[in-house]
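Sanity check record (used in CI):
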Amino acid sequence: MSQHFLLSAAARTLSLRTIYEEGEDAAYRRFCRLRWPGTEGAPVCPLCGCLDIYDLSTRRRFKCAACHRQFSVTSGTVFASRKLAFVDLLGAVCLFVNAAKGLSAVQLSRDLDVQHKTAFVLMHKLRETMTLETRETRLEGEVEVDGAVFGGQVRPANARDDRVDRRLLANRSGKRRVVVVLRQHGGRTLPRSFLREARLSISPGNGLPPAASSRPTR
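Expected output for Putative transposase:
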């Protein structure tokens, strides 16, 4: 029986130990390679696409020779105007993707020694990035679809006269979500979250409708 990919050495391409052993400079160079993979980390102006760039190394910023705009490796990304060090950002990404059973903001705040608010916002930025990357993805071939309903349960009042009909939309909590997961055989797995099941329309040749856009609660 062949070994599962997640148990192999090929799945361990980024470890928390390596990130903090290499330090801040190595984390910054890794961010550059991830941001501009086509040029192997060489900066590209996000405004005009020019490759003639001046390196302002003392501030870790760049200046475009064509449009004369300054930018950084995080400009135009979810990490723009960051306050955390690159090594902490990369460490957060490592903890987020390697958590086999998910990662809470409380746990991340303890691991990185940051406030809960910082960890909470950072994790939602990572989730937003994952959603944007897979929004236009289409699955082909044999695809399995399954769904379930999570949340929204309200404890009924003790007195019978005080109870209301929770089947009515006006009496619901508004936190109920329908989660649908699509898995292509030998391919990718796409999860989606929706407000209600009646809006789902999945058929061959059609993509999933946009996911529910609601402000997350802490």
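Residues 1-133 form one domain. If this sentence no longer matches the regenerated tokens, the check is flagged for review.
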